[in-house]
From TrEMBL, chain A:
One of its GO terms (biological process) is sulfur oxidation. Residues 79-161, 177-272 form the Cytochrome c domain. The active site is at residue 240. Gene3D superfamilies: Cytochrome c-like domain. Its EC number is 2.8.5.2. GO terms for cellular component: cytochrome complex; periplasmic space. InterPro entries: Cyt_c-like_dom, Cyt_c-like_dom_sf, SoxA. This is SoxAX cytochrome complex subunit A. Heme c 1 binds at residues 97, 129. Heterodimer of SoxA and SoxX. It comes from the Bacteria. The keyword Electron transport applies. Belongs to the SoxA family.
Automatic annotation (TrEMBL), chain B:
It comes from the Bacteria. Residues 6-100 form the Sulphur oxidation protein SoxZ domain. This is Sulfur compound chelating protein SoxZ.
TrEMBL record, chain C:
Residues 1-22 form the signal peptide. It comes from the Bacteria. This is SoxXA-binding protein SoxK. Keywords: Signal.
Automatic annotation (TrEMBL), chain D:
PROSITE patterns: TAT (PS51318). Residues 59-160 form the Ig-like SoxY domain. InterPro entries: SoxY, SoxY_sf, Sulphur_oxidation_SoxY, TAT_signal. It comes from the Bacteria. This is Thiosulfate-binding protein SoxY. It comes from Marinobacter pelagius.
């Protein structure tokens, strides 16, 4: 059914990446990017892109479906809910820091804070909420923060991702910085994120099956079989950078937040399906 | 404290399908931690599923069963509303148990 | 790749008249410091392998293996320079492949 | 904030006054009700410590297993990760009393061994660890005789996951 069409992929790779339009707006970028991936995988429905390699490879999809039948992150999500609802020492809870009590809002993250002029990711907002209530911040990449973020994502299941880039020079600059990071080759292997996830999705890189960029942030935080636990998106950024022998940047650094801003914007309209399992 | 066992048991036309996920590291004893010393073997040895005091399924597990192990089994003779008891014991003598109602 | 570097390292050390002001240790400090500063210059484009070589150079130097220390420092410098070149090239190169510039 | 595991550990200690079990690491909340803890005395210790498929089968059942096409195994062709390989075994063979899962090239072949009491269907699904590309063997005892099915699974170690 969703067999990766080798011919098509070859055609996709040969597809001349649309010539850079001078100063295209984020929305134009997004539309062009969706079109690019639709041409590359014509028989993959738009919503299915959130399932990455599992939308392109039958053998992988079957393994994924048996994992999702009773996913190993269920304990972490239950723990995340317990942590989310446990009041801080001052009696308040996370709900007080978020609109709608933090329920069903994952699809709006990350957003650009026009006062502070910075990208606010969900994990950053979680720790800022803790600090505002006199609590110690959590570690960024795994553990409690991943469980809480996974619980909050689970309350947004199916809601379309809705990232906004306001017509504000700082917001556009953050978006552009994230885009530049995404397309810049780095590390001794000299790959960019796009080398794998834009130019070669649907192909094998050794024994790994490359997923398309479209839809990637929709399934975070993710429980990877390799980690044996949940991990946040910035843990994945650092891991990928390390794989190409580029020095990873600190989690929740401005560069990684701008990167998340750009990448998530590209998935606007796709449903939140986090948390999810991955290899 | 949430139990370490999550269960879904559903009966239709006489056959109960039970799925369980157990929270356990299932360390094999063959893995080293980042400091280079071996993580000792720590895994569930026996897991039983019983209905009306009788075992309907017994799993003898070794260290090659994945972390946070998953199990599915099917049996006859139980109906909606019946209660099942799922218990496990590991190689360190720790154990846990929970009950589930068949939907 | 290491062998030629080692060879160059050795021949260089031999050709330098012994009376030269810095002995092999002196040259090492110089190369090591240059490698470090070039590595910093790479900014967000630092390579993990450069920091590995810098560590290897330092530990070789600490344990008195000057030959290895020099080879590692030289390799670190070469890698650091390549990462700086990558940073500069990518300043504009990314636009050619980006969807929608 | 009390670390989740420590809280579980503390509660375990208070509750475990009954029996002086060696307390495991605090990771797993210890709720020791000695009464319902399953009896692990007939856990096949030696079988779980035997390398090699045939040696394990003879250790476990004291007989050889013959290949049978009545056993269906649902396994991936290429495992996405050797740490979590989903496997499902089902058979049409009659009066099944036991199913075993073996991973040939694991340090010890036996991964899991299930008692199938009367009234329980000859079916089981599990997630196993596989050290490398190798055969997964399912052994079924039907009418007191041992049958087996074999299927190879490719496993690669490491990788970025894609």
């Amino acid at each position: 059914m969703l067999k990766a069409k080798v011919i098509l992929v070859a055609l996709g790779a040969a597809l001349a990446v649309p010539q850079a339009l001078a100063g295209a707006s984020p929305e134009e970028d997004r539309k062009e990017s969706v079109e690019y991936f639709k041409q590359m995988f014509p028989d993959v429905p738009f919503e299915e892109f959130v399932n990455g390699q599992y939308a392109l490879n039958e053998d992988r999809r079957k393994q994924w479906e048996s994992m999702q039948d009773f996913p190993p992150y269920e304990f972490a999500v239950a723990e995340g809910q317990e942590l989310f609802e446990t009041p801080f020492a001052n009696g308040k809870t996370y709900a007080s820091c978020f609109e709608n009590g933090g329920i069903g809002i994952r699809q709006n993250y990350p957003y650009f804070d026009t006062e502070k002029n910075e990208v606010i990711t969900l994990e950053l907002a979680i720790n800022r909420c803790r600090e505002a209530n006199g609590e110690e911040p959590l570690k960024w990449k795994k553990g409690a923060i991943a469980s809480i973020s996974a619980y909050m994502a689970s309350t947004s299941q199916g809601k379309p991702i809705n990232i906004k880039v306001p017509d504000d020079p700082e917001a556009l600059a953050a978006y552009q910085d994230g885009k530049k990071f995404y397309y810049s080759r780095r590390g001794q292997l000299n790959f960019s994120c796009a080398s794998c996830h834009v130019q070669n999705p649907g192909k094998w890189i050794r024994a790994d099956f490359l997923s398309p960029a479209l839809g990637q942030p929709a399934n975070f935080p993710v429980h990877r079989a390799k980690w044996g636990e949940l991990g946040t998106l910035h843990r994945r950024f650092a891991g990928c950078n390390n794989n190409v022998r580029a020095e990873p940047l600190p989690a929740q650094s401005e560069e990684y937040r701008n990167l998340e801003y750009f990448l998530t914007y590209m998935s606007n309209g796709l449903p939140v399906v986090g948390p999810a399992t991955r290899p | 404290m949430a139990s370490s066992i999550r269960v879904r048991a559903v009966e239709n036309n006489g056959v109960t399908s039970l799925k369980a996920l157990v929270r356990h590291p299932m360390d094999s004893g063959f893995v080293k931690d980042s400091a280079g010393n071996v993580i000792p073997a720590h895994f569930i040895k026996v897991l039983t599923i019983s209905h009306n005091g009788k075992n309907v399924f017994v799993a003898n597990w070794g260290p090659a069963v994945s972390k946070d192990p998953f199990l599915e089994c099917r049996f006859k003779g139980a109906k909606k509303g019946d209660e099942l008891t799922i218990s496990w014991i590991d190689n360190e003598g720790a154990s846990d148990s929970t009950t589930a109602t068949i939907a | 790749m290491n062998k030629p570097l080692l060879a160059i390292g050795i021949s260089l050390a031999l050709s330098v008249p012994l009376a030269a002001q810095g002995g092999p240790k002196e040259d090492f400090q110089e190369v090591y410091a240059k490698a470090q500063s070039t590595h910093q210059d790479a900014g967000n484009f630092q390579w993990t392998i450069t920091s590995d070589r810098l560590k290897a150079a330092k530990s070789a130097a600490d344990s008195g293996d000057h030959e290895k220390a020099m080879a590692m420092a030289k390799e670190a410098l070469k890698l650091a320079e390549e990462s700086v070149a990558q940073r500069k090239k990518q300043k504009e190169a990314w636009r050619q492949v980006a969807i929608g510039n | 904030m009390i670390d989740q595991r420590r809280r579980g550990f503390l509660k375990g200690v208070l509750g475990a006054g009954v029996a002086g079990f060696a307390l495991g690491s605090g990771i797993v909340p210890l709720r020791v009700e000695a009464a319902t803890a399953p009896d692990a005395s007939d856990w096949p210790q030696k079988a779980f410590r035997t390398p090699g498929v045939d040696e394990t089968i003879s250790e476990l059942y004291g007989m050889e297993a013959t290949e049978s096409d009545q056993i269906t195994m649902d396994l991936p062709t290429i495992a996405q990760n050797g740490a979590v390989v989903p496997v499902t075994v089902e058979t049409a063979l009659p009066n099944v009393t036991s199913i075993a899962l073996l991973v040939a090239k694991n340090p010890n072949a036996l991964a899991a061994y299930f008692d199938i009491p009367d009234g329980t269907l000859p079916f089981v699904s599990n997630r196993l660890k596989m050290a490398e590309t190798t055969d997964v063997v399912a052994v079924v005892i039907s009418d007191g005789k041992a049958y087996k099915a074999t299927q190879n699974v490719k496993v690669t170690v490491g990788g970025c996951g894609g």
